[in-house]
Amino acid sequence: MIIRGKKYFAKVLADRGMSQRGLARLMEIDVASLNRMLNGQRRATLVEACEMSRLLNLDLYTVAHHLGIEMMGIRLPTDLKVVTEEKNGTLNN
Fold it and tell me: Could you read off the pLDDT of 41-76 as tens digits, one per residue?
């Protein structure tokens, strides 16, 4: 099953023992803004995606993909595998 957006980040946050509130606090944004961003009701900025990438220890391309940010014209490294699926309770490449 492919998971994106809020479900993906809920799993990542749970794996890291974090909450949306904690992530919002670290990003210095309102919890409601983060919630809307993860639900796809608000576009994330590239700066916010970079910050999430750093805080969650994920590559920027994976974060951008799950936030729905199109990175057209930016070449992905050939060895990069974007995490898109969940199998057996773990995130896979």
Answer: 888 988 999 999 999 999 888 898 899 887 766 665
- For the chain, how many residues are written? 93
Torsion angle, CA of 87/44/73/83, rounded to 10 degrees?
-10
The total of other beta-carbon atoms located within 10 Å of residue 14's CB is 10
pLDDT surpasses 90 at 3: no
How far apart are alpha carbons 49 and 84 in whole angstroms? 16
- Which H helix or E strand runs over 69? none
CA atoms of 19 and 27, how far apart (whole Å): 12
Six-digit token pair at 93?
């490449």
Residue holding tokens 């993906």? 8
Q: How far apart are CA 12 and CA 34, in angstroms?
A: 15
Single out the residue of 22, 69, 9, 66 nearest to residue 44, CA to CA: 69
